[in-house]
Amino acid sequence: MHLLDYGVILAYLLVSVGLGIYFGRNQSRKEFFAAGKSMGWLPVGLSVMATLFSSNSFVMYPSIAYGSGLRICLFLVSVSLMAPLILWVFIPVYSRLNCQTAYEYLERRFHVSVRSLASGLFVLLRIGWMASATFAASVVLANVMQVSQVSVIVVLGIVSIFYTMLGGLRAVMWTDVIQFFIFTLTIILTLGLILSQTELGVSGVISTYFEGRSNLLVDFTPSMTLEYGSWALLIGLFLEALSAFGADQVAVQRYIAARSERTSQVGFMINVIGMWTVVPGLLAVGVGLYTHYQQFPEEMVTVLAAELDGELPDWRTKGTDHRNRMSVPEYYQSYPEYVAEDIRALNLQDQALPQYVRLHFPPGVVGLFLVALMAAVMSSIDSGIHSVTTALMVDFRDRHFAHWKPKSNKIEVLQDRALVILIGLLSVVLACNVSEMGDVFAIGKKVTAGFGGPLLALFIMALFFKRSTTAGVMVGTLAGAVITIALMYGASDWFSVWFWPIGFGLTMGISLFVSFLTGAEHQDSEAEPLTFWTVIQGRHKK
Q1: CATH no. for residue 64?
Q2: Which domain holds residue 128?
Q3: Fewest 10 Å CB contacts: which of 135, 301, 413, 516?
């Protein structure tokens, strides 16, 4: 790496730390957890976008486009379809009930036990998500910088913990805004470099990508094992997006920090527009990488050689001809047509982008690329530890151990900051040990689907099913989560996105059945259930 690259990285880290110090002055509980409820639509929208579209996504989308096709773009269709529910159901409910967390609504709808269950599931989901997201981007950072993954995770974790601990939600949101612009600029520069280094032009790049390949855009084959099958993506990613933007404290905390309900809604639409900008950009990077390596397959030979450690894969050693006596580099230099095929077979498509960065990015731009990945990692860490801290303090300490809540604002903020440090350190330790779980995409889906689908079903039951009961949703949510997690390991060959509709459907079915069995005891209650319709029509207690 060039000295200029180190300068770009250092400047970014110093700016992040500086924001934490600047916003850390005169902190209060309301400021630390909700940014004083004063944030405008731009930081709300871009912070939601940068937080939930983070390091997993930055690594994942080019990798999928390079290795598997463009079917993942159906994510944008799913996001667009679920957007009205966020705009006109979830945001108005949280705003009009003046909730501090998403799970406070569940207590007002059912019982404090449901609030605690949901918040607990969120804490588990988000800590696991932080670890997997941090690990995902650290793989690329470590490869490009030629340092250990542990070093990357620890350094970025410490910086993220520091500015989050000092500056609270306001520092987190403004660093998210900066991070969004950094990785957007990086995507544009990467695309420009790829196109400038090919003689094919845009049309040639596209035609090369599609040449001799089928089902790159859609594949509606009914299958539980088909990777990136269109049915799985449309259904599973719809539910995942609805959960992430509607039932997840990370996003809800940003809606709560907005000046008004309208500000939250406009901010959410900014987030959707950002998705439609960044996802196609990252997929285009993957298309460009595929075309580039089709022209210059020898550039990926070193990646194969490092992975194979001197031994050709089994499917290339059949027979007794002279090829069996070749070294790995000699073999692929003699048979370059096998390079792309074996990269995909060995699941090495994650290496395509870092290899291109090492070979072709000029000084300074390498640093910007690394900063973009660092921004993605830090966005995952800062938002995760802050939202988990909020959930633990508001949903558990304040609700169950109110006598522990200090009367002094100074001590309150000190306790909040101490918990941020503890959660942050736990996430960093877990991130250093994620590698046993599988590839980047599967890691994220395994971590979130087990809890995310049941958690979303719990909110849907609360909002739209008037006769749902506390016993019904408690049993349904717990059973749905346990069965989904068991299935993930019992049916490990199923495409990971399918576990979203499985977890959601199981929870809905069990909750409705148990609610039917236990509903008689609630029929005589005079209190009207706090459903979506009750809140929107203003018939709830203020």
Answers
A1: 1.20.1730.10
A2: 3-295+351-537
A3: 516
If we measure between CA atoms, which residue out of 135, 178, 114, 115 comes closest to residue 368? 178
Note the pLDDT tens digit of each residue in 103-150.
999 999 999 999 999 999 889 888 877 887 787 777 778 877 888 888
How far, in Å, CA of 420 to CA of 400, rounded?
20
pLDDT digits (tens, 9 = 90+) for 147-157: 888 898 899 99
Residue 34 within any structural domain of the chain:
yes
Is the pTM value of this prediction over 0.85? Answer: yes
Handedness of CA 164, 105, 77, 226 (dihedral sign): positive
DSSP code of residue 247 = S
- The verdict on residue 472 lying in a domain is yes
Cα(262)–Cα(255) distance, integer angstroms: 10
Instruction: Report the alpha-carbon distance of residue 335 to residue 329 in Å, rounded.
Output: 10
Q: Using CA atoms, how far apart are residues 269 and 272, in angstroms rounded to an integer? A: 5
Residue 313 within any structural domain of the chain: no
Residue 123 is assigned to a structural domain of this protein: yes
| d(C-alpha 97, C-alpha 481), whole Å | 28
* Cβ pair 163, 382 in contact under 8 A: yes
